[in-house]
Amino acid sequence: MSILKFKSILPKLSSGILRNTLLPTKIVPLKILCKYSSGSNLQTQENEHYDRPKLLNVHLPNTSEPLKLHPIWLRDHCRCPECYNDVTCQRNNDILKLSDQIAISTYSQSDDLLHICWSDGHKSSYSIPWLVSNTYDGKYKALQEETDRLTTWDGTTVNLLGLEPISHQRLMSDDKILREIYRRVIQYGFVKIEQVPPTKLDTSAVIERICRMSHTVFGKFWETGTNFDHKDTGYLNGYLEAHTDNTYFTEAQGLLVFHCTHFDGTGCESFLVDGFHVAKQLKQLDPSAYGYLSKVNMESEYIEPGEHFSSWGPIFRHHPVSHKLEQIRFNMLDRSPLSSIPQEEVGTHYRYLKTMATLVKKKENEYRFRLSPGTVMIIDNWRLLHGRESYQGERVLRGCYYSRSDFMSKARHYGIIS
Ligand SMILES: C[N+](C)(C)CCCC[C@H](N)C(=O)O
Ligand SMILES: O=C(O)CCC(=O)C(=O)O
């Protein structure tokens, strides 16, 4: 086993709220002094095998375990212009040309770079902070151990978040506010933009300034209250219990944007429920209900002339690596006929579903307010549930969806998630 020692400080740790704490936000130029280990530390394993190769061990300061690097991984991750196109940020390599027999001929170090000459004559240089933050130990394992840093709330604590209003004028003139908008959505599940002129043009300009509108079956920039061009209760004036949208899409739209541009009537109070808070309550109240609703697949559907959407999944969906709660799919109106449960077991199913629905409907969990002309609201549709009371009179609600992938791409760009 080859051993390489680096004596230095570790790269600065990230401050992003959802970032893995072990990952550097950027590669900080480091003064790393490389000291090769003495003869006794330089070991060569006998019986080298494809899965038990000579690993290059890089000793970093303040860590007990060395960073272990397999030659084939290192050769595959060469970032030279021949192997990697840093304009397209894509690899150039053909994986089948990557030799299993590849071996390190020599290695050296200068500042924070590790240089390698390969047995095939190729030369590579790697930034050591980059190696730390892109390998199993530095990234994947850290992601598995990540703790939740979101701020969940109920109907009382939501008023204590102390969020400064964000004005239309500020949004349209100050690029820096965009990061804050993304931060609030990720941290709290919603954000409001105030003093937006209640016109179609101004609403769409606000929407487009933040992210791309998504084009779904409902169109891009939709309007309700004035038409019934999609056969959904959202287009009518009745009571809508708290729900998430698009439980019937394979990827539910990530964010919802609402702007009530006209209201002349009575009723129509809106409410939001922090589904992640409800999840915590359920876990505490009835852990087996939480476990069940995290596991059992339910089908949801949306049907209108010419369309039939369907998707399967549990109510609580967890991240495949961190196992943290990632998405709530909860819309009791859009449930398909229940076929995923043998009839003998449906009693338990309804009992768990009702336990969850009771928590969702708990008054203490609801953040109540009126959506009124001037306020554009962005809501995390993977976390918050939204609803409204019935109303009489005239109302125009405009809005759009942002896809999860699009919104998270920007949040990552702003350094809020990793
Ligand atoms: C938001 N907008 C009015 C366009 C569509 C509403 C769709 C509501 C539907 N029941 C669902 O849960 O997805
Ligand atoms: O009309 C509203 O305020 C909410 C509509 C709604 O819940 C929906 O369209 O999903």
For the largest beta sheet, what order do the strands appear in spatially?
A: 10-11-21-14-23-12
> How far do the termini sit from each other?
33 Å
Number of strands: 23
Q: What global shape is seen?
A: globular
Mean pLDDT level: 88
> What is the CATH first-level class name of the largest domain?
Alpha Beta
Largest sheet: 6 strands, mixed
Beta fraction:
25-35%
Please compute the radius of gyration using only Cα atoms.
Answer: 26 Å
CATH topology-level name of the largest domain: Double-stranded beta-helix
User: How many alpha or pi helices?
Assistant: 10
Which range best describes the helical content: under 10%, 10-25%, 25-40%, 40-55%, 55-70% or over 70%? 10-25%
What structural class results from the helix and strand content?
A: alpha+beta
Please tell me the CATH architecture of the largest domain by its name. Answer: 4-Layer Sandwich
Compounds present?
N-trimethyllysine, 2-oxoglutaric acid
**CATH superfamily grouping of the largest domain:** Clavaminate synthase-like
Number of domains: 2
Cofactor: Fe(2+); L-ascorbate
InterPro entries: AlphaKG_dependent_hydroxylases, GBBH-like_N, GBBH-like_N_sf, TauD-like_sf, TauD/TfdA-like, Trimethyllysine_dOase
Family: Belongs to the gamma-BBH/TMLD family.
EC number: 1.14.11.8
Describe what this molecule looks like in 3D.
By secondary structure, this protein is α+β, with helices and mostly antiparallel strands. The chain contains 10 helices and 23 strands. The strands form 7 sheets. The protein has a 6-stranded mixed β-sheet with strand order 10-11-21-14-23-12. Strands 2-1-3-4 form a 4-stranded mixed β-sheet. The protein has a 4-stranded antiparallel β-sheet with strand order 13-22-15-20. Strand 16 and strand 17 form a beta hairpin. The protein is globular, with a radius of gyration of 26 Å. Residues 6-50 have low confidence and may be disordered. The structure holds N-trimethyllysine and 2-oxoglutaric acid. 2-oxoglutaric acid binds next to strand 22.
